[in-house]
């Protein structure tokens, strides 16, 4: 399943790269949850590509996608035609706002789950042409643009006040206001804060040591399913909501380098970030 995830994320990333320069933005962008929450024709076309490839490679698996929701498995015409118990969780473009504006930080995320737990996943950094991947108990790696692959390990940082922290903000104005309050409390107590614009890449950033911790409220499972596994397999301590939590729940996800997990977890508790943020 890890190999399938890497293959699909790589193919989808190539599709997104090819389409980026040929999109008519005046006709291809619409909004979802709010006026600031865009979805493009490339998002929907890329998800259709991923679903088509999964239907061919894994016809008895279920699929949960950001754009088209959930579909059951058991569609195999030549097999038993029974659901396999595997669910693929896909995000065709994580960081759509960056994609629309041409900011080079957006990704394709593909994860496989068994009984609600992610067991394999891949995140393709579209612009950098890098593919992160992991399997449960099998470690985490990144394949660079030149084809070389290396193991991922979190930073050895041990002091919370020296942590570089990634976060993101919701599209709901109410939730965004509360998130701003949390950042204001957090900022004096860490090295600095980064807002990159892709939760999947933030989680991979924890895995490879580009940041020391990540936290965000209100993400859908397509945002974190692959990246959280990659971070965990690189040694991070990860906090996740329920396996079926959707963006509207306002629950927290977080990933922390192991040396600061206790201190940063306590800091999140102190500033009130552990509780869900209603939207």
Automatic annotation (TrEMBL):
<feature type="region of interest" description="Disordered">
    <location>
        <begin position="61"/>
        <end position="85"/>
    </location>
</feature>
<dbReference type="GO" id="GO:0046854">
    <property type="term" value="P:phosphatidylinositol phosphate biosynthetic process"/>
</dbReference>
<keyword id="KW-0378">Hydrolase</keyword>
<feature type="binding site">
    <location>
        <position position="94"/>
    </location>
    <ligand>
        <name>Mg(2+) 1</name>
    </ligand>
</feature>
<comment type="similarity">
    <text>Belongs to the inositol monophosphatase superfamily.</text>
</comment>
<dbReference type="GO" id="GO:0008934">
    <property type="term" value="F:inositol monophosphate 1-phosphatase activity"/>
</dbReference>
<dbReference type="Pfam" id="PF00459">
    <property type="entry name" value="Inositol_P"/>
</dbReference>
<protein>
    <recommendedName>
        <fullName>Inositol-1-monophosphatase</fullName>
        <ecNumber>3.1.3.25</ecNumber>
    </recommendedName>
</protein>
<feature type="binding site">
    <location>
        <position position="66"/>
    </location>
    <ligand>
        <name>Mg(2+) 1</name>
    </ligand>
</feature>
<dbReference type="InterPro" id="IPR020583">
    <property type="entry name" value="Inositol_monoP_metal-BS"/>
</dbReference>
<dbReference type="GO" id="GO:0006020">
    <property type="term" value="P:inositol metabolic process"/>
</dbReference>
<feature type="compositionally biased region" description="Low complexity">
    <location>
        <begin position="73"/>
        <end position="85"/>
    </location>
</feature>
<dbReference type="InterPro" id="IPR033942">
    <property type="entry name" value="IMPase"/>
</dbReference>
<dbReference type="GO" id="GO:0046872">
    <property type="term" value="F:metal ion binding"/>
</dbReference>
<feature type="binding site">
    <location>
        <position position="223"/>
    </location>
    <ligand>
        <name>Mg(2+) 1</name>
    </ligand>
</feature>
<dbReference type="GO" id="GO:0007165">
    <property type="term" value="P:signal transduction"/>
</dbReference>
<feature type="binding site">
    <location>
        <position position="93"/>
    </location>
    <ligand>
        <name>Mg(2+) 2</name>
    </ligand>
</feature>
<keyword id="KW-0479">Metal-binding</keyword>
<dbReference type="InterPro" id="IPR020550">
    <property type="entry name" value="Inositol_monophosphatase_CS"/>
</dbReference>
<dbReference type="InterPro" id="IPR000760">
    <property type="entry name" value="Inositol_monophosphatase-like"/>
</dbReference>
<feature type="binding site">
    <location>
        <position position="91"/>
    </location>
    <ligand>
        <name>Mg(2+) 1</name>
    </ligand>
</feature>
<keyword id="KW-0460">Magnesium</keyword>
């Amino acid at each position: 399943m890890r190999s399938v995830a890497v293959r699909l994320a790589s193919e989808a990333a190539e599709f997104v790269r090819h389409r980026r320069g040929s999109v008519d933005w005046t006709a291809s962008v619409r909004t979802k949850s709010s006026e600031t929450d865009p979805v493009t024709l490339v998002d929907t076309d890329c998800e259709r590509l991923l679903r088509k490839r999964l239907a061919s490679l894994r016809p008895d698996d279920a699929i949960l996608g950001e754009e088209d929701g959930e579909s059951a498995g058991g569609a195999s015409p030549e097999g038993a035609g029974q659901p396999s118990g595997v669910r693929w969780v896909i995000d065709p473009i994580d960081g759509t706002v960056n994609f629309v504006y041409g900011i080079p930080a957006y990704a394709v995320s593909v994860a496989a789950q068994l009984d609600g737990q992610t067991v394999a996943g891949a995140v393709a950094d579209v612009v950098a042409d890098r593919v992160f991947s992991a399997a449960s108990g099998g470690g985490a790696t990144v394949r660079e643009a030149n084809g070389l692959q290396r193991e991922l390990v979190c930073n050895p940082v041990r002091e919370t006040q020296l942590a570089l922290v990634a976060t993101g903000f919701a599209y709901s104005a109410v939730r965004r206001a509360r998130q701003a309050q949390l950042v204001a409390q957090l900022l004096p107590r860490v090295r600095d804060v980064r807002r990159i614009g892709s939760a999947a890449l933030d989680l991979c950033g924890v895995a490879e040591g580009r940041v020391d911790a990540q936290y965000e409220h209100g993400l859908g499972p397509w945002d974190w399913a692959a990246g959280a596994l990659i971070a965990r397999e690189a040694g991070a301590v990860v906090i996740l909501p329920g396996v079926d939590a959707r963006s509207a729940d306002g629950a927290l996800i977080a990933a922390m380098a192991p040396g600061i997990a206790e201190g940063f977890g306590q800091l999140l508790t102190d500033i009130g970030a552990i509780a869900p943020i209603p939207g």
